Structure formats: structure tokens, C-alpha cells
Amino acid sequence: MRVITVANQKGGVGKTTTAINLGTALAAVGRRVLIMDCDAQGNASTGLGVEPGARDKSTYDVLVGEGTMREAILPTKVPNLDIIPGDENLAGVETMLHNDPRKNFKLKEAFEVFRATGDVYDTVLIDCPPSLSTVTVNAMVAANAVLVPLQCEFLAMEGLSQILRTIELVRSGLNPNLEVQGVVLTMYDKRNNLSDQVANEVRTYLGSKVYQTVIPRNVRLSEAPSFGLPAILYDHKCTGSEAYIMLAQELMQRERERAAA
Ligand SMILES: Nc1ncnc2c1ncn2[C@@H]1O[C@H](COP(=O)(O)OP(=O)(O)OP(=O)(O)O)[C@@H](O)[C@H]1O
Ligand SMILES: [Mg+2]
Fold first, then answer.
1. Where are the domains of the chain?
2. Cα(83) to centroid(ligand 1), Å
3. Fewer CB atoms near the end CB (10 Å): N or C, the chain?
4. 242 pocket-lining for ligand 1 (C-beta < 6 Å)
């Protein structure tokens, strides 16, 4: 089971859209996928058609020890794709865990219990909130790798340096095995010179860590969540869906190369 945390402290850069559609594309080729929604906004849950009323246990319960991962898992409409939903309680995790000396290891410990119960997933994608809070640190400590969606816009590089510093910090102490899975450029607009500038700058800086696949700005990607569907089911032929299918292929290729090495 490979655990990939989708993180960027900046809001609205495409974390949730990436978790949902990458997860769906992986599930479509037969991988068993779990999305863990770590955001109090619960956008990944809503975007996968899980209504707030249907969220019995959430990632919050897992983090504060009021439920196991197994108890919190719900199916989605997508075959092979399950979710542990997020809810507004997640906003209180920081306060709840404030005095707990193990506060950064809560998810890691929950994953250990989950793995020990046997039947697990091939891939877990953790959708993080837009902050470097205790929840995000937990997600990085529990993960094998971090996938960073980066919006092609002004100041993207500053945001990128900050998230890479945080990953380095986690690696130097809490989780020495944490890898950077890759950086994916999102909301790319070919009519905007800035998009190209950012893409070139990030590729110069990070080289092959940046996925070849670029996610274009595409209105279908933003419409799909209001139908409770991944874009890949809502309109599998739109440019956004096609890009996420390509991204999944690239990710699997990298994993194969990693395994071979
Ligand atoms: N490639 C895209 N083209 C057009 N719209 C997009 C694209 N990617 C995401 N969006 C839209 O932009 C908004 C922000 O995307 P998303 O929710 O995925 O970002 P996020 O990083 O998860 O945000 P937050 O930090 O609030 O959790 C959403 O309304 C989403 O539908
Ligand atoms: Mg989000």
C-alpha cells in the first residue's frame, strides 16, 4: 500500500481536484484506491457524492482516536474507490491534540493498525487542507511520498519553496523516508504567457520531479464536483479528464521504475 499525500499550503491550487481525479483514474485501471479527506471543508467528500449526513465517522475521529480507519471508510459511486470523509470537526484537531506528545503521529499510528488488519488498498491519496497545520504534518508523517499540485501563477515559486522546506523538515525528523512523488502543474492556460513562464521556471528548478503531464484550466473540472462526480465520470473526454488519466499513467510508470530500482 503506497500512501501519497497531496499537499500545498496555498489554497485553491487543485489539491482536491487532483486527489479525486487521479484517484478515479487509478481506480479505473483496477487499482484499489482510498481517498482520505483531511480538510474541514470536506470538498473531496462532497465532490465524490458523499453527503454531509452520510459521514458517520470522519478523518477527525481517526486523528483523535475516536474511530479506526476501517470504521470510517465509505464506498463511492466509483468502483474500486473508497473514501474516509472529512468534516468541519477537523478544524478542531489542532486544539484537541495541543498537549499530546504524539500529536504528529496520529495518522501514522492509525495506518499501522489498518495495515495490520489485512486487506488494504494499493494506493491511498490524502487530500490536505490549505495550511501547514498539525493535520498536514500528520499526513506527511503517515505518507511514503508527497505530491504537490502547483498552480501556474504569479508567486508560484515562493509557495513551492515553502512546501519543499516543510517536506525537508519532516524528512529531517519525523519521517526520514518521505519522498517527493512529484510536482504537477495545474490550471495551465496556454493563452497566458505567465503559465509558460512558471512552467519553465519550475522545470528548470526541479527537473524530472515535475510531471510531463500538465493539467489545463478546464471548466468541466470545476463543474463536476457540483454533481458529486469526478470529472472523469462527468465528462471523460474533456481536456481536464484526459490530463488526469495521463497523469495517472505517468505516476504508475514512475512507481514501476522506482520498484525496479
Ligand atoms: N484545472 C482546473 N481548471 C479549472 N478549474 C479548476 C481546475 N482545478 C481546480 N479547479 C477549480 O478551482 C477551485 C480550487 O480547486 P481545488 O478545490 O481542487 O483546490 P484545493 O487546492 O483543493 O483548494 P483548497 O486549498 O481550498 O482545499 C475549485 O473550484 C475547482 O473546481
Ligand atoms: Mg481542497
1. 2-260
2. 19
3. C
4. no
pTM of the model: 0.97
| Most confident among 50-54, 204-208, 212-216 (mean pLDDT) | 212-216
Phi, psi of 13 (to 5 degrees): -95, -5
> How far, in Å, CA of 171 to CA of 114, rounded?
23
Could you say which of 3.30.390.50, 3.40.50.300, 1.10.10.10, 3.40.630.190 is the CATH number of the domain covering 2-260?
3.40.50.300
Q: Is the CB of 213 under 6 A from ligand 1?
A: no
In angstroms, the Cα distances linking 62 to 110, 130, 203 are 7, 20, 37
Nearest ligand 1 atom to the CA of 13 is 21
Look at residue 118 in the predicted model and tell me its pLDDT. Answer: 84
CA 146 – CA 4 distance, rounded (Å): 6
Ligand nearest to the CA of 11: 1
Dihedrals phi, psi of 143, to nearest 5 degrees:
-95, 160
| Nearest ligand, measured from the Cα of 17 | 1
For 97-150, the pLDDT digits (tens) are 999 999 999 999 999 999 998 878 999 999 999 999 999 999 999 999 999 999
- Mean pLDDT across the chain: 95
**CA-39 nearest atom, ligand 1:** 27
Atom of ligand 1 nearest to the CA of 19: 18
